[in-house]
Amino acid sequence: MTGPKAKSSPTASRPPQKKRPRKKLSETSTGFDAWNFEPIAVMETDFKEKFGIPRQVGMAANAKGVIRFKKDFRYSSAVRDLDRFSHIWVVFVFHQTGGDHGKSYDWKPTIRPPRLGGAKKVGVLASRSPHRPNPIGLSALRLEKIEVAKNGDVSIHVEGVDILDGTPILDIKPYLPYADQIPDAKSGWAEKPIERNPVLYAPGMMERLEDFARTRMGLVELVEDLLSLDPRPAFQRRRKPAKAESSYGLKYGFAVKDLDIQWTIEADGFRITAVDDLETAKALGRIPAKGKKVE
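Request: output the structure for the sequence above.
Response:
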């Protein structure tokens, strides 16, 4: 009679493996080696083109977005307890700024910030320009809610967005007031408060915008926020200042959500003259969201 068979060790048949000595960072890297990162999510926003996007985060509180994570069951656990924070840091790629999907591009060491009217140059690292050695952006956004679907798909709803639709997201971190707020911080050349312009309406345009707003929550406030900031590129604002008499009567258009907003510069502010869906605007021969003067 034989006794019970002894359980074989799962490693019994494996040949002994030699441990590889772990090298120190100084032995494997110079500190300037290239790094490759993959996006963890994509941002969906109302800004389909760069023209009209707020130049800084929080300047248009009604600009909302949704961060949709790539399909990976681990992300449903990765966002656990994130909803206990009111704001998050979002690290992203300026994917429409030079280069080609991570390939290097010829960046310039100085830029002309819109805040300075495009008239003065500063070092690119002394700015928040998207045209950087590495086109990486950072925004602190208000966290509205987190949704985790039954199939594990994760989406984060945020507010105060200043990010282009389709932007790749690299990382997300909670905003910590005790660590991230610096009350005595200085703003350098950006110390001057951002000027806003009055938003006016041509006859019937307020009612028309409100009609569209019935199915687009926060639309009126969003359009007024964006327009009050003068969404024109810096070179246009430098050549045609809003308060210059020679600018009065100039016509422009920009797109937000799925609408085309036409407006003119007048002595007492920016006046909305037409509001149409993009398909109607195209049929009328308009070119939305390019900041071009409408002839």
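The chain has two domains: 37-191, 195-295.
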